Amino acid sequence: MDNEQTVEKLKQMRLTAMAELHARHLRENRNDKLTADAYLALLTDHQWEARQNNKIQRLIKQAKFKQAANLADIDYNQNRNLERNMFERLAALDFIAKKENLIITGASGVGKSYLAQALGNGACLMQHRTVYSNTARLLKKLKLSKVNGTYLKELKLLVKADLLILDDFGLQSFDSHGREALMDIIDERHNKTSTIITSQIPVSAWYEIIGEGTIADAILDRIVNSSHRINLVGESMRKGIIKNV
Fold it and tell me: The pTM is what?
């Protein structure tokens, strides 16, 4: 069989990585050093790894993170009440397997969003479908989706995510539409998937911010009782960045 035809057929079957590796081996006359079984295994492993990497990159892109946060770059030296052993246990992502939640609170600039997105990036690397969003922006989007008839579709995408990150929770008070949308999200995800919430507002004040006692009780009961907690303290880490500019 013509080698070029083989390479082309592999590409047409969308086995691009396999085709490229095979073509490279042909150019370099390297495939005669392996048995047929070993060579097939080599090509197959290469294609499989390429697909896994492509899937991970697709998940990261679809998550729509605000910044490129990495678990390996977490700074534990800052005096901000971030206990390394505890956070590294969270970074193992067992809380996702257990359908548990995480709440990260603290003042502006102490690194809440970075920690949440670093965990989100780690989740993507483990091939967990992840969605990141500013809370107010997400609720506004859902409000508009009710007008154009896509609300259930948007809600389904959020419910299907293995990990949902709601950033800057509670910076704006919730109107009736926001409360109902938040209730739908939390209720549909309860005990099925994991949610990370970051907020400058202490959890004790969330009841008043959400408003409407019955709905607030229902939302907080589903979020808080199944959550790990991190309360960051200290000055904004952005101050040091500004000083060094």
Answer: 0.84
